Amino acid sequence: MKKYNVAVVGATGAVGEELFRVLDELNFPINNLIPLASSKSVGVEIEYRKKYYKVLELTEGIFEEKEVEIAFFSAGGSISAHFAKFATEAGAVVIDNTSHFRMNPDVPLVVPECNPNDIKNWKNSGIIANPNCSTIQMVQVLKPLDDIYNITRVDVSTYQAVSGAGKAGMEELVSQMQDFFAFKLSESKSKIFQHQIALNVIPHVDVFLENDYTKEEIKMVNETQKILGKNIEVSATCVRVPVIRSHSESITIHFENSISVEKAIQSLKNAPNVIVLDDPNKNEYPMPVIASDTNETYVGRIRKDISRDNILHLWCVADQLRVGAATNSVRIAQKWIEMEE
Ligand SMILES: NC(=O)c1ccc[n+]([C@@H]2O[C@H](COP(=O)([O-])OP(=O)(O)OC[C@H]3O[C@@H](n4cnc5c(N)ncnc54)[C@H](OP(=O)(O)O)[C@@H]3O)[C@@H](O)[C@H]2O)c1
Q1: Residue-wise pLDDT tens digits, 229-274
Q2: 206 and 310 fall within a common domain
Q3: CA nearest to 119, candidates 328, 332, 325, 341
Q4: In what order do the strands lie in the sheet with 56-57?
Q5: pTM
Q6: Which atom of ligand 1 is nearest to the CA of 100?
Q7: Euclidean distance between the first and the last CA atom of the chain, given in angstroms as a whole number
Q8: Same domain, yes or no, for 164 and 270?
Q9: Are residues 271 and 138 in the same domain?
């Protein structure tokens, strides 16, 4: 099997670090590994399979110099906006974790469990976009249900972990909790989140738009429609919670016609990389502590609406650094290799 020169842009970040773990676990065929970050991280060592790789500075010429064939980008939208073209011009396929290219019609937006064939269009731009972390786990659950019953509308509320805002988000929660135990939480500063996140819940992720939704909420609307290839109505309320890792979602799904819960559960049990964890008698349901550090999306609390036969409610949890970013990117790359070879 061919092995590839793989660059990780944003190698020192929350997603970048997870990418190395997932590449290792999924036995990705790597010839040379090239960790890239900002000038401040040059020389930092990344351990991968008992070998050490020095972080290099992300430059316009590095992709050609290192003959990069696959470039994972997770260093923020403005970095992808500027540097992705240098990777594609050097002949690499870019798998981008930022929101920058997601809604570009020339760029496939892929969750391999839902729309793997869209990867075929990668040559239009050289780029394949990884959806927003909250969208990925939701569509993994919506797709098998939509395959058996026609979904017309989705209402979702998210409970998003602080690591969704990167390493600095985790550090802010930890330092505020330390301040709480030192009786000086009132002196704590909030730099990453709009308000104190320790012992709090903030109904505000990303910036507000003119329609009073946030950008994060509108990403969930547009990306779901692009991935599922249909204009189902989606409304989202995105909330930041003081959890370190793994996003939770309460999802209400409206179908065209009445449904059988048993059949819906069976379709979820058969869905790839989805685990049904749903036994109220044993207090069994998905939670962030169960999903963290795993590559699966967990679903539970599955129940029919008490008033209507065509509405299903469920609770969905996944590790957003993995399922919502690193794992989805690596699965895209695996499919890309399968299609190219
Ligand atoms: N966190 C999540 O759950 C998640 C999920 C899906 C998608 N994403 C997306 O993935 C991207 C990264 O998120 P993250 O959570 O990993 O953030 P992070 O922890 O803040 O890491 C940011 C990474 O980008 C690098 N970087 C920053 N400025 C750079 C520059 N000028 N040149 C080169 N590298 C630079 C940083 O390198 P230095 O250490 O050298 O500064 C670091 O490696 C974001 O676009 C985010 O929206 C995040």
Answers
A1: 999 999 999 999 999 999 999 999 999 999 999 999 999 999 999 9
A2: yes
A3: 332
A4: 56-57, 30-37, 4-9, 70-73, 93-96, 127-129
A5: 0.97
A6: 45
A7: 9
A8: yes
A9: yes
Among all residues, which ones are annotated catalytic?
133, 247
Residues 152 and 283 occupy one common structural domain = yes
Q: Which atom of ligand 1 is nearest to the CA of 16?
A: 16
From 22, 38, 216, 317, the mutation candidate for ligand 1 (largest count of ligand atoms within 8 A of CB) is 38
Q: Are residues 175 and 70 in the same domain?
A: no
Our count of domains for the chain comes to 2
Residue 61, domain CATH: 3.40.50.720
CB contact at 8 A, 9 and 58: yes
Query: CA-CA distance, 223 to 316, in Å (whole number)?
Result: 18
* Same domain membership, residue 104 and residue 170: no
Distance (Å, whole) CA 228 – CA 111? 10
Domain identity same for 161 and 303: yes
Q: List residues bridging with 277 in a β-sheet.
A: none
Domain limits at 31? 4-130+325-340
pLDDT given for residue 130 in this prediction: 98
Give yes or no: residues 166 and 256 share one domain. yes
Q: Quick: pLDDT tens for 293-316.
A: 999 999 999 999 999 999 999 999
